[in-house]
Amino acid sequence: MFEYAPAPESRSVVDLKPSYGLFIDGKFVDPADGGSFKSINPASEEVLAEIAEGGAQDVDRAVRAARKAYDKVWGPMPGRDRAKYLFRIARIIQERSRELAVLESLDNGKPIKESRDVDLPLVAAHFFYYAGWADKLEYAGFGRRPTSQHSGAYPQPLGVAAQVIPWNFPLLMLAWKIAPALAAGNTVVLKPAETTPLTALLFAEICQQADLPAGVVNIVTGAGETGRALVEHADVDKVAFTGSTDVGRAIARAVAGSRKKLTLELGGKAANIVFDDAPVDQAVEGIVNGIFFNQGHVCCAGSRLLVQESVAEQVLESLKRRMAQLRLGDPLDKNTDIGAINSAAQLSRIRELTEAGAAEGAQQWSPPCELPERGFWFAPTIFTGVTQAHRIAREEIFGPVLSVLTFRTPAEAVEKANNTPYGLSAGIWTEKGSRILWTADRLRAGVVWANTFNKFDPTSPFGGYKESGYGREGGRHGLEAYLNV
Ligand code: NAD
Question: 252 in helix, strand or coil?
Answer without folding.
Answer: helix
